[in-house]
UniProtKB/TrEMBL annotation, chain A:
It holds the Pfam family ABC_tran. It comes from the Bacteria. Residues 1-21 are annotated as: Disordered. It comes from Streptomyces sparsogenes DSM 40356. CDD domains: ABC_Carb_Solutes_like (cd03259). The keyword Lipid biosynthesis does not apply. One of its GO terms (cellular component) is membrane. Keywords: ATP-binding, Cell membrane, Ion transport, Iron, Iron transport, Membrane, Molybdenum, Nucleotide-binding, Transport. One of its GO terms (biological process) is molybdate ion transport. Residues 19-249 form the ABC transporter domain. This is ABC transporter ATP-binding protein. GO terms for molecular function: ABC-type ferric iron transporter activity; ATP binding; ATP hydrolysis activity.
Automatic annotation (TrEMBL), chain C:
PANTHER family: MOLYBDATE-BINDING PERIPLASMIC PROTEIN, SULFATE-BINDING PROTEIN. It holds the Pfam family SBP_bac_11. Belongs to the bacterial solute-binding protein ModA family. Residues 1-19 form the signal peptide. GO terms for biological process: molybdate ion transport. This is ABC transporter substrate-binding periplasmic transport. SUPFAM superfamilies: Periplasmic binding protein-like II. Molybdate binds at S62, S90, V193, Y211. InterPro entries: ModA, ModA/WtpA.
Length: 364, 282, 275
C-alpha cells in the first residue's frame, strides 16, 4: 500500500488555535434512526464523510447546513454557536448532490442569488457572480440556463454559487455522483484545485472512496449513524476496521510522472494506463482489479505485470484481502477459493496483473 | 435523470409528440369506445346548442346593451375573483403543501368543501358570514360602512369563494410535485423562507399556478348559484352572464341560448389565447 | 303556533287601506268553510270506493304548504290513492311539462306560464282560476323603516329587492308600480319570490315586494304591509288537467278538491284570495 498524497498535509483534524474552524457534535433523531457524530476541522481542512447509503452522511450535512434541527450536541464555527441559527443566517455554502441550480435563472443569476440575498445590489451581485464564473472558466456561459449546461459545467456553477457567499464552511453532497465516468475525472481534478484554494473548512459527503481520497485530507467513515473510523485516507486504507471500509476504501492509489500511456510511479515501477497524459498524475485501481498468479503468466494480455510478495492476508466476509509488497506495493482482493488454489501464505511470491482499462489516471 | 428533468415534471404532463402518435395508433377498443362515447357525451349538448341557436335573431340579441353589460361584468368579475384567489389561494396552497401542522388533513378538506357544496348553499353561507347582518359582515358595516351583498364586490366574493378551491388544489398539487430542496438551496444561500418562495418556488410552479388560475377563472365565469344568492341580480352591477341566461330562460329560451353561445365563444377565445401563450413561453 | 292563531294575530295587525279588502276576503273564506266540512264528508265517502292509483301534481312553489295539506286530506278520503307533488318555479315546471315530464295536474302561479302548456296542447279543456294572490310588502320584523306605502320604498337608502320581471311576482310588482306612477330602483331583481323574501328574512334587504302568501308563510320573520296598488296587480292561479295524465279520474278529483270550499278554506288560510 502506498502513501496517498494527502496524508502529509493534515495529520488529524482539530479546530485551530483561536477556536477557528469547525467543532461539532451532531445528534439528529429521525424515527428509529439516530445520528451521533463528532466532527472537528481547522480552516483549510477538507473532510470527507464516507459511508454506505442510509448511514446518515447526508443527514449530518443537512444538520450542518441548518436544514435539520439538532436533537442534541453542539455546532461551533470559528467560535460562534450556530445550533439555533436558521440556515439563511449561517455562513455555510452547500453544493447539493444534483446541484439544484434554479432552472428559471441563468448561470450568472444563479451565482448572483447568494450575494443578492446578502444585501448586494443587483449590479454588484452580478459583477461578483461574473467574477466567480470567470474563475471557474465559465465566463462564456453566464447567460445560459442550467438545462443547457453540461454536467461538469453545472457542477462548477453550483460550486461558484456556494462560494459566492464567502462561506466559512463549505458542504458538498456527493459532488461528483451525477457525472458520467469521463467527466468525473476532469471535474474531480478541478474540484480538488478549488478545494485546495479554499481557506475555510470543507466537508464533503461521498460513497466513492476514490473521490474521498483524492479530495479530502481526512476521512470520517460513518455507518449506521456513528463514526466507525476516521483518519488520513492512507491509514484507513491500510487498516480497515470494518468489512465495509475494507471493501470501499481498499484502493490502490499512486502518484507518478506520466509520459503518454505510461506512468512512472515514484517507487520506480511503471503502470500502463488508458489515458494519454503528461506530467504529475495519480493512478488508481481497486483491489478487485488485481489478478494474482503463482507463476509468471505467459499468455496474459495484461500490460501491467509485477512480481510481489505476500505481506499479509485478511479475511473480510467471503473475500480475502492480500497485502503485497515488491515492485509495486498493492492490495488485491480474491475469493477464498482462489486464495486456496494459489496457496497464498505470507512470504509467498506471486505475479500480479492489472488490465490498463481498469486503472484511472488523472492529473495531480 | 438530471435535476432539470425533475422540475420539468412539476410543469405537468406534457408528453412528446412522438409518444402521442404512438398511443393513437395502438388504442385498444375497450378504451377507444368509452373514450369516444365520453367525447360525444361532452360535445353533443354543445353541438345541439349550436344547431338550435336562433341565428336569425342573433344580431339583434348581440347588439343589445344589456348583453354587453352582462358580458363585461362577467369578464371583470371572473378576472377579479381569479386575482383574489391568486393573492390568498397560492399562499394557502403553500401552507398546505409545505408546512406540517396538526389537523392539516382537516384543513385541506375544509378548503375543498366549496367544491362539493351546492353553490346556492355557498351563497347563503356567505350571507351568514359577510352579509349586512352576517357574523363578520355586521362589523364591516358598523366600522367601515361596507356591505357586500348587492354589489359588484359581492359578485367577486361569491365567485372567489366557489373558484378558489380549484386554484388551491391545482397549486398544492404542483407544489407537492415540485422539489422542496430548491427552497432549501435558496435558504443556504441566505434567502429567508419568503424570499425563497418568491424568487425560487413561485417561478418554478408558475405553470401550475397558471393552470389553476385558468380553472378558477373558468369556474368563476360560469358561477351562478352563489352569485345570485349572495350578490343578487341587478343589470350592470351584479347581473353576470349566467344570471342573464337563467332569467332569459324563464320566458325567452332563444335569447338564453344566444347568450350562452356568446359566453361559450368568449371563454373559448380566452382559454385558447392563454394556452397559446403558455406554449410559446415554455 | 297554530294557523288560526297566526291568522288572528295578522288580522289584528291589519290597518290602513288594505284592511277593507282583507276583511271582505276573510269574511268570505270563513263563511265558505262552514259548508265545506259537510261537503267534503259526503263527497269523500262516495268517492273512496272508486278512486285508486297515483296522481302527480306539478304546482307553483307558493302552493307548497296548502297543497301538501290538501294532498294529505285527499289521501285520507281516498285511501287507495297516492298524491305526489313537484313544487317549483311555474316557468320551469311548464318547461318540464312541455318537455314530456309525467304529470297529471298543473297548478301555475300565472296565466302566462299556464299558456305555455296550453299553447303546446298539453292541457285538457280550459284551465280554471282556483285562487288569486295579491302582493304585499315584506319588511323587517317591527317595520323599523316605517314603510307604510309602496311610495315609501322609493326612499333613498332603503334596500329593496323585487322579483325579476321575467317571473310572475316581478311582472306583478312592475304592474303595481306602474299603476301608482312610481319608479323604484331595487338593489336586486331576484330570480324568484322565495329568494326575494329570503333576502329580507336574512336582513340583507330592508324590504321586498312579494306575495301575501309568502309573507304569511314566513311567520314572524318578516312583517307584511298592505298597499292599495296591489289590487291592480292581482295574480290568477290557473289549474288544469294534463293531456298525458295517466290517472285522469283521480286527477279530476284532486282538482275538484282544490276548487271545493274545503280546498278554498285551506288556501285562504295560507293567504290566497278566492278567484
Amino acid at each position: 500500500m502506498t502513501d496517498t498524497h494527502k496524508s502529509a498535509r493534515q495529520a488529524a483534524g482539530s479546530p485551530g488555535p483561536a477556536g477557528e474552524g469547525l467543532d461539532a457534535r451532531l445528534v439528529v433523531e429521525r424515527g428509529a434512526f439516530r445520528l451521533d457524530v463528532a466532527l472537528t476541522a481547522a480552516p483549510g481542512d477538507v473532510v470527507a464523510l464516507l459511508g454506505p447509503n442510509g448511514a446518515g452522511k447526508t443527514t449530518a450535512l443537512r444538520a450542518l447546513a441548518g436544514l435539520l434541527p439538532l436533537a442534541d450536541g453542539h455546532l461551533r464555527l470559528d467560535g460562534a454557536e450556530l445550533d439555533r441559527t436558521p440556515p439563511e443566517s449561517r455562513p455555510v455554502g452547500v453544493v447539493f448532490q444534483d446541484y439544484l441550480l434554479f432552472p428559471h435563472l441563468t448561470a450568472l443569476d444563479n451565482v448572483a442569488f447568494g450575494p443578492r440575498c446578502h444585501g448586494a445590489s443587483k449590479a454588484e451581485a452580478r459583477a461578483q457572480a461574473a467574477g466567480w464564473l470567470d474563475r471557474m472558466g465559465l465566463a462564456g456561459h453566464a447567460s445560459v440556463k442550467p438545462r443547457r449546461l453540461s454536467g461538469g459545467q453545472a457542477q462548477r456553477v453550483a460550486l461558484a454559487r456556494a462560494l459566492a457567499t464567502h462561506p466559512r464552511l463549505l458542504l458538498l453532497d456527493e459532488p461528483l455522483a451525477a457525472l458520467d465516468a469521463r467527466t468525473r475525472l476532469d471535474v474531480r481534478a478541478q474540484l480538488r484545485r478549488h478545494l485546495a484554494d479554499f481557506e475555510a473548512v470543507a466537508v464533503l459527503v461521498t460513497h466513492d472512496p476514490l473521490d474521498a481520497m483524492v479530495l479530502a485530507d481526512r476521512l470520517v467513515v460513518v455507518e449506521d449513524g456513528r463514526i466507525v473510523q476516521e483518519g488520513a485516507p492512507s491509514d484507513i486504507a491500510r487498516h480497515p476496521r470494518t468489512d465495509y471500509i475494507a471493501h470501499l476504501v481498499g484502493l490502490n492509489l499512486y502518484r507518478g510522472q506520466a509520459l503518454g500511456h505510461t506512468v512512472h510511479v515514484d517507487g520506480g515501477a511503471g503502470i500502463t494506463t488508458v489515458e494519454d497524459l503528461t506530467g504529475p498524475v495519480f493512478v488508481a485501481f481497486p483491489p478487485s482489479a488485481v489478478t494474482l498468479h503463482r507463476d509468471r503468466p505467459t499468455g496474459s494480455s495484461a500490460r501491467n505485470l509485477w512480481r510481489c510478495e505476500v505481506a499479509g492476508l485478511e479475511t473480510h466476509g467471503d473475500r480475502i484481502r492480500a497485502d503485497l509488497t515488491g515492485e509495486l506495493p498493492l492490495a488485491a482482493d480474491l475469493t477464498t477459493v482462489a486464495a486456496a488454489e494459489l496457496g497464498l501464505h505470507p512470504g509467498a511470491t506471486v505475479w500480479a496483473t492489472v488490465k490498463a482499462a481498469q486503472t484511472h489516471a488523472y492529473p495531480a | 435523470m438530471t435535476p432539470l428533468d425533475e422540475t420539468g415534471a412539476a410543469a405537468g404532463p406534457r408528453t412528446g409528440g412522438r409518444r402521442r402518435r404512438r398511443a393513437r395508433g395502438g388504442a385498444p377498443p375497450p378504451l377507444l369506445l368509452p373514450a369516444l362515447i365520453g367525447l360525444a357525451f361532452l360535445t353533443l349538448p354543445l353541438l345541439a346548442l349550436l344547431v338550435r341557436a336562433p341565428w336569425r335573431s342573433m344580431p339583434d340579441l348581440l347588439t343589445s346593451a344589456e348583453v354587453w353589460q352582462a358580458l363585461q361584468l362577467s369578464l371583470v368579475c371572473a378576472t377579479a375573483a381569479t386575482a383574489v384567489s391568486l393573492v390568498i389561494g397560492v399562499p394557502l396552497a403553500w401552507l398546505l403543501a409545505r408546512v406540517e401542522f396538526p389537523g392539516r388533513g382537516l384543513v385541506r378538506a375544509l378548503v375543498t368543501l366549496p367544491l362539493v357544496l351546492p353553490p346556492v348553499v355557498g351563497g347563503v353561507a356567505l350571507l351568514m358570514a359577510l352579509g349586512r347582518n352576517g357574523v363578520v359582515g355586521h362589523w364591516l358595516d358598523d366600522w367601515f360602512g361596507i356591505t357586500l351583498p348587492f354589489t359588484t364586490a359581492g359578485v367577486v366574493v361569491a365567485e372567489a369563494f366557489v373558484a378558489m378551491p380549484f386554484l388551491v388544489i391545482s397549486v398544492e398539487g404542483t407544489l407537492r410535485a415540485a422539489d422542496p430542496r430548491y427552497e432549501e438551496a435558496a435558504t443556504t444561500l441566505g434567502a429567508s423562507r419568503f424570499t425563497a418562495f418568491r424568487r425560487v418556488t413561485l417561478p418554478l410552479i408558475a405553470p401550475g399556478i397558471a393552470a389553476g388560475a385558468v380553472l378558477a377563472w373558468a369556474r368563476a365565469l360560469g358561477e351562478f348559484g352563489a352569485t345570485i344568492t349572495f350578490a343578487g341580480n341587478f343589470p350592470s352591477r351584479t347581473q353576470t352572464m349566467p344570471l342573464a341566461v337563467y332569467l332569459a330562460l324563464q320566458n325567452d329560451p332563444e335569447a338564453a341560448i344566444a347568450l350562452s353561445l356568446v359566453l361559450l365563444a368568449m371563454s373559448i377565445a380566452v382559454l385558447a389565447g392563454l394556452r397559446d401563450r403558455w406554449m410559446a413561453a415554455s | 303556533m297554530t294557523r288560526s292563531a297566526r291568522r288572528t294575530r295578522r288580522m289584528l295587525r291589519m290597518t290602513g287601506a288594505g284592511a277593507a279588502v282583507l276583511l271582505a276576503v276573510s269574511a268570505c273564506s270563513s263563511s265558505d268553510s262552514d259548508d265545506s266540512s259537510k261537503d267534503s264528508s259526503t263527497r269523500g265517502s262516495a268517492a273512496s270506493d272508486e278512486l285508486s292509483g297515483e296522481v302527480t301534481v306539478f304546482a307553483a312553489a307558493s302552493l307548497k304548504e296548502s297543497f301538501t295539506t290538501l294532498g294529505e286530506r285527499f289521501e285520507k278520503e281516498h285511501p287507495d290513492t297516492k298524491v305526489t307533488f313537484s313544487f317549483g318555479g311555474s316557468d320551469s315546471l311548464a318547461a318540464s311539462i312541455t318537455g314530456g315530464a309525467p304529470a297529471d295536474v298543473f297548478a301555475a302561479a300565472s296565466p302566462k306560464t299556464m299558456k305555455i302548456v296550453t299553447d303546446k296542447g298539453d292541457a285538457v279543456g280550459t284551465p280554471a282560476t282556483f285562487v288569486r294572490n295579491q302582493l304585499e310588502i315584506a319588511t323587517l320584523p317591527g317595520n323599523p323603516d316605517k314603510v307604510s306605502s309602496l311610495k315609501d320604498l322609493t326612499r333613498s337608502g332603503l334596500k329593496v329587492v323585487l322579483c325579476d320581471r321575467t317571473v310572475p311576482c316581478g311582472a306583478a310588482a312592475q304592474k303595481a308600480l306602474d299603476a301608482g306612477g312610481l319608479k323604484l330602483t331595487p338593489v336586486s331583481y331576484e330570480q324568484d319570490v322565495k329568494s326575494a323574501l329570503t333576502k329580507v328574512v336574512l336582513k340583507e334587504a330592508d324590504a321586498a315586494v312579494v306575495y301575501k302568501t309568502d309573507v304569511r308563510a314566513a311567520g314572524d320573520k318578516v312583517e307584511g304591509v298592505e298597499f292599495p296598488e296591489s289590487a291592480k296587480a292581482i295574480n290568477d292561479y290557473p289549474i288544469a288537467l294534463l293531456k298525458n295524465a295517466r290517472n285522469a279520474e283521480v286527477a279530476k278529483a284532486f282538482i275538484a278538491l282544490v276548487r271545493s270550499a274545503e280546498g278554498q278554506k285551506v288556501l285562504g288560510g295560507a293567504g290566497f284570495l278566492e278567484p
